[in-house]
Design goal:
The protein folds into 6 domains: 108 residues, 2-Layer Sandwich (Beta-Lactamase), CATH 3.30.450; 168 residues, GAF domain (Beta-Lactamase, 2-Layer Sandwich), CATH 3.30.450; 148 residues, Beta-Lactamase; 131 residues, GAF domain (Beta-Lactamase); 192 residues, PAS domain (Beta-Lactamase); 129 residues, Heat Shock Protein 90 (2-Layer Sandwich). The protein is elongated, with a radius of gyration of 57 Å. The strands form 6 sheets. Strands 8-7-6-11-10-9 form a 6-stranded antiparallel beta sheet. A 6-stranded antiparallel beta sheet has the order 14-13-12-17-16-15, with helices on both faces. A 5-stranded antiparallel beta sheet has the order 2-1-5-4-3. It has 954 residues and is of the alpha+beta class. It has 29 helices and 32 strands. InterPro entries: GAF, GAF-like_dom_sf, HATPase_C_sf, HATPase_dom, His_kinase_dom, PAS, PAS-like_dom_sf, Sensor_HK_TwoCompSys.
Length: 954
């Protein structure tokens, strides 16, 4: 909202009444009200001191009193009351926007009213009143701060007749002390430098209590104040505070060096009155100066923004940022730090006024010093005096300079430069003196940093677009070059284009064969490497582009990159690789790696396409060869049905056909079927089918539409007479196969029954041997034993021999009976039977069991027992093993048994030879597993033993 101009006659009004009348006229015009009343506290009561317009009868003073008491705006119907200091503005029918605009001037109205009241209170004091009025007339409402300060100093010196005076504004107020900035003096021989300091005692009297300090050498010559004023060497001096709106502004000093000068009470009142009037003028001038400065800052920012927007190249944009920043803020030097890809360091991208060694050696750490803190916090960081505030340096070099006291700058401001992708870097401004910027300047600097960030973002986007265009041009040129020609010359030119695009010094393209060996190599600015060097580079290939260290790069290179050329087919066949290097040690950036991937993909795409075209030509030739040698009739026709190709089989059967119409073949009786198949093929992807007769031949024709702009039809015909002959032969062979299958089924059934009968016979014989023969032999052995006990001499010894023979016969019968059918299998189950087998084996054998143990079907347990028995017999006879193992794994749906040995093993050929020699153990195992509905696996390798694995349901 724009503030209306403050009328200068308000501050110069001699009385409260004149002030009220002028304010009423000004306020009525500003807010476009029907009427305005100005109320002021006079003699302890709130009275009207000025009015303008009509409708004032609506007010009785209640609303004005309420506004003055609350200190806030009050409204009631058409009335609005605005309090200011010791007065109130009351409007009748005012515009809201005008009231809002006038509210911004209330602080100035407060100061003006206080000044008028103060002058009116002291108006009867003659010289004081006259001096103040002279100062007011001399100022004439001036808003030039320097003029106001100079006029105040001169008026005070002349009015008191002291000869010297100065006015100084505070630049620092802190901890009960103050220090002034520039001093405006009158009557002094030389100008002040370095400002004036105010101690805590003087600060308390001047600023906190608003008193005038009187110094008289004859009285105060031994006081601390005398030491502070020793440089000025006054005989008498008056020091008055400058204050406005409750804030200390500075001080007014008047002195005389003439001996015998005396200061009266009127002199004190005169200095205080001048100070009060000067305070009002100073505050008005400072407010005006602030607004002016804001306008100038806005104009400067507009000009800076226009200048920065005039460039789309990053280097030029950074130069303009540095130039505008140093000019706008009066900096002695400036630098733009760019955040490096590691995200931890900042290096100087551009500088103005910084020493060359500083630019080369400084690499700031994020989070360290002023610059590093600004990058980390992403907000402005300012140091009034870097050498005293303990920020430290952001790099080792700056820390060393600070430690030696050689750092050239004191004031430092760092402003982060942000873009949409994150922090670009930091703009840092340097001053050799302490930081001269105030809060408004720092806010302006932040706005400028925002403009600079926007300009940098635009420049980066523009350069990124240019870079993409250049990269697209490189990709296009490489693709066109290799697409037209893949000779060594074209490959070398592609290597040159790729190397320059990557910003490298040397490069090469190597193509590999199916075995991965390099078969072709083209270089740029590089001697052709040897086979060992190319093989070493190929060994560094990964899935994508990767940087190479000096150890893995070619000789002389400081850094390098390598990227494979991968085809797009299944498995992504490696076609070769692209290599580029540079003498510098800086590794390739992410942008360069991304570009290398794009260039490699383009090369691989072109090479793959050319290889596919060559393969397509070869396949086309092969298919033509197949068509030429096919027994079926193959013809192609255009969209009108004219034959464009006929293979030799078609020509032999039907004669010359090229140029003739496929739809007019000599098929009078079956021509409608051919036409119907033609239409069906044109409508449906599955094509059409027809059986036609051409002379003595009966043909089955299949028609398929050919896709493409020209269309057409492909016809494949087969002589059904030959097909019928083949079908009859197939039926004959099928019947023979069915008979053989039936015979095999019968044999398997017979074998199953035979096996069952054999097992039953074994069980019967085993039982008879155990129950009959063994029992007879046992009874006989007992009778011989009794006989032996009754004999003496040789007869007894012979009986003992017979008894031993009988015991051996009994054991032999028992063993034979167990081998035929061990009773432990029927009585105790599979696992005890297998333990018995392991104990009976000639090879050291162990039994291992896993899973939930359970009884299986008797047939399954018997089959497992026989299979393990046969397998262990094979181990004992042929394996030559030191040990064997039986592993039984129970599963919910069956059992899996493994018999493994550590013997000599065998090959499939050796197993076949043993079978031909009559050793049918393995064949018997496989057949028995098949009869039980299971599966058998055999694992064997010479020198590594044999494993027989069979799984049976149960």
């Amino acid at each position: 909202m724009t503030l209306p101009p403050f009328p200068p006659d308000l501050a110069a009004a001699p009385t409260v009444q004149v002030f009220g009348a002028a304010l009423a006229r000004f306020a009525c015009q500003t807010v476009r009200a029907h009427g305005v009343q100005v109320w002021a506290v006079t003699g302890g009561a709130l009275v009207v001191v000025g009015e303008e317009g009509r409708g004032l009868g609506l007010s009785d003073g209640t609303l004005a009193a309420r506004a003055l008491a609350s200190g806030e705006r009050q409204e009631e119907g058409m009335l609005v009351a605005l309090p200011f200091g010791g007065g109130v503005l009351e409007f009748v029918g005012a515009e809201g926007s005008g009231v809002g605009a006038l509210a911004g001037l209330l602080p100035l109205l407060t100061l003006a009213l206080e000044g008028v009241q103060a002058r009116e209170t002291r108006r009867g004091r003659g010289r004081v009143s006259e001096t103040v009025e002279q100062l007011v007339r001399r100022l004439g409402g001036s808003l030039d701060l320097a003029e106001v300060l100079t006029a105040t100093a001169e008026s005070a010196a002349l009015a008191l007749g002291f000869g010297r005076a100065f006015v100084a504004l505070f630049s620092e107020v802190q901890g009960g002390r103050a220090r002034t900035g520039e001093v405006f003096s009158y009557g002094f021989d030389s100008a002040f430098t370095g400002g004036v300091g105010v101690g805590p005692v003087s600060f308390g009297r001047l600023v906190e209590r608003g008193e005038v300090i009187l110094y008289d050498r004859s009285r105060d010559g031994a006081s601390p104040m005398a030491a502070g004023l020793a440089e000025l060497d006054p005989e008498v001096a008056l020091i008055a505070p400058l204050r406005a709106r409750g804030r200390p502004l500075g001080l007014l000093y008047v002195d005389s060096r003439s001996p015998g000068v005396r200061v009266s009470e009127d002199d004190t009142w005169l200095v205080l009155a001048l100070a009060e009037q000067a305070s009002l003028a100073i505050d008005n001038a400072r407010l005006y100066g602030t607004e002016t400065r804001k306008r100038e800052a806005a104009e400067a920012l507009r000009e800076a923004g226009a200048a920065l927007a005039g460039s789309l190249h990053l280097s030029d944009t950074l130069s303009r940022v540095l130039e505008r920043a140093t000019a706008l803020f009066g900096a002695d030097a400036a630098g733009v730090y760019e955040l490096q890809p590691d995200g931890r360091t900042l290096s100087i991208r551009g500088a103005l006024g910084l020493p060359g060694e500083y630019v080369l050696r400084v690499r700031a750490k994020v989070g360290g010093g002023v610059t590093g803190r600004a990058a980390q916090r992403r907000e402005m960081v300012a140091a009034r005096d870097l050498t005293a505030e303990g920020y430290g340096g952001s790099s080792r070099y700056t820390r060393a300079l600070l430690a030696r006291g050689e750092y050239p700058y004191r004031g430092v401001v760092s402003l982060p430069l942000g873009t949409r992708s994150g922090v670009f870097g930091v703009l840092t401004l340097y001053w050799t003196a302490p930081l001269p910027l105030d809060a408004d300047d720092l806010a302006l600097a932040e706005v400028f940093a925002g403009q600079a960030s926007l300009a940098i973002e635009n420049a980066r986007l523009y350069e990124e677009e240019l870079r993409r265009e250049r990269e697209a041009a490189v990709l296009l040129n490489v693709g066109r070059l290799l697409g037209e020609d893949q000779s060594d010359r074209a490959l070398a030119e592609a290597a040159r284009l790729a190397t320059l695009a990557l910003g490298a010094g040397r490069g090469l393209i190597a193509l590999t064969g199916e075995d991965g060996a390099v078969i072709r190599c083209a270089t740029y600015n590089l001697h052709a490497p040897g086979g060992a060097e190319l093989a070493s580079l190929a060994g560094q290939l990964g899935r994508g582009p990767r940087p190479l260290t000096r150890r893995h790069a070619l000789p002389v290179a400081g850094s390098a990159l390598i990227v494979p050329l991968r085809g797009g087919g299944e498995g992504e066949e490696v076609l070769g690789f692209l290599y580029a290097d540079d003498p510098g040690t800086e590794p390739p950036s992410d942008r360069v790696l991304a570009l290398s991937r794009s260039v490699a993909d383009q090369m691989a795409l072109t090479l793959t396409r050319e290889r596919l075209l060559s393969a397509l030509a070869r396949e086309e030739a092969r298919y033509r060869q197949l068509a030429e040698g096919a027994h079926d009739l193959i013809l192609s026709a255009d969209g009108a049905g004219l034959v464009t190709y006929a293979n030799p089989a078609a020509v032999r059967l039907l004669g010359p056909l090229v140029g003739a119409s496929l739809l007019t073949l000599p098929t009078p009786g079956t021509r409608p079927a051919l036409h119907a198949a033609w239409e069906a093929a044109r409508r449906h992807p599955a094509g059409g089918r027809a059986e036609i007769e051409v002379g003595p031949y009966r043909l089955e024709v299949r028609l398929s539409a050919v896709s493409g702009p020209a269309g057409g039809m492909l016809a494949v015909a087969r002589d059904l007479s030959e097909l019928q002959t083949l079908a009859a032969e197939i039926q004959r062979r099928g019947r023979a196969l069915e008979a053989a299958t039936s015979r095999q089924t019968e044999l398997r059934t017979y074998l199953t029954l035979f096996t069952q009968a054999q097992e039953e016979e074994r069980r019967r014989i085993s039982r008879e041997l155990h129950d009959d023969t063994a029992q007879v032999l046992i009874a006989t052995s007992r009778r011989v034993a009794r006989l032996a006990r009754s004999l003496e001499g040789p007869g007894r010894e012979r009986a003992q021999d017979i008894l031993g023979d009988l015991d051996a016969a009994i054991e032999s019968v028992r063993r034979f009976a167990r081998n035929l059918r061990p009773s432990v299998l029927d009585d105790l189950g599979l696992l005890p039977a297998l333990e018995w087998l392991a104990g009976q084996a000639g090879t050291d054998t162990r039994l291992e069991v896993s899973g939930q143990e359970r009884r299986l079907a008797p047939a399954v347990e018997l089959t497992v027992f026989r299979l393990v028995q046969e397998a262990l017999a094979n181990v004992d006879k042929h394996a030559g093993a030191r040990s064997a193992a039986i592993r039984v794994a129970y599963a919910p749906d069956g059992v899996r048994v493994t018999v493994r040995d550590d013997g000599q093993g065998f090959t499939p050929d050796q197993a076949q030879a043993r079978a031909q020699a009559g050793h049918l153990g393995l064949i018997g195992l496989r057949e028995r597993v098949a009869l039980a509905g299971g599966e058998l696996e055999l694992e064997s390798e010479p020198g590594r033993g044999t494993a027989v694995v069979f799984a049976l349901p149960g």
